[in-house]
Amino acid sequence: MSGLAQQQDQPLSGCTLWLTRPAVQAEKLQQQLQQLGAQVLCLPMLMIEPLPLTGASKLRILDLDRYDLVFYVSSNAATLGLDAILGYWPQYPSHLMNFAVGPGTAAVLESFGLSVSYPTERMSSEAMLALPGLQHISGKKALIVRGVGGREILAESLRERGATVDYAELYQRILPDYDSQLLQKYFEQAPPQAVVITSAEALDNLRHFCATETLWQALPLFVSSERLAEHARKLGNTRAVVMAGASDTAIIGGLLASLTPATGHQATH
Question: What is the pLDDT of residues 49-72, one digit of tens each?
Fold first, then answer.
């Protein structure tokens, strides 16, 4: 294959990329990036641990038909939520209006034949709140399916609009068990041209595993929102590139736009 042909077929040839999503969520993206020529290292900065369905979360799943709106804030929430719901409900309540944080989460719901509204430009609570179906919800009952903890902006905004809000918390995010020098070792072996980050908690954990401030400041972060870029700056990394969103398409587009095909270094603008 000629050099020009390789640039066209594998424009990320020569690039080393780190993916920090949980392994299952990163699998498809890893394959796509490898097809584009990149060397991809999966370094999940979050581990997803399902929780037993008990207590208030179980009661809310059992009372699902009493809600009007159901929100799935991640693909994990959609997968585990539907598993819990269909374990108790032979048929998903047809009157429910379903909302997903983005196309990947929506695809999980759609694979079960469910209708779902979701933002296509950005994957965030703010983008979901801008959807037309959520502008007049006074008196509605909403259930948010999520992991333990997380941002409260969705629930707060729904309550401000007159809805009542409950949570069904079905999993927890835990810190991976990495050696303290692991990132330093990988960095020395093959410094990455991009470290892809799509959540604040993953960003915090990445900082945790950087053995030195020098390593942290050297990492070329590619983040899915300006909010994450600002968070990175507060943590001392000023190199963050903001991509168009957290979908696989947005991540690939952001990497292609910012990395030169020939050298794998960030393009100058």
Answer: 999 999 999 999 999 999 999 999
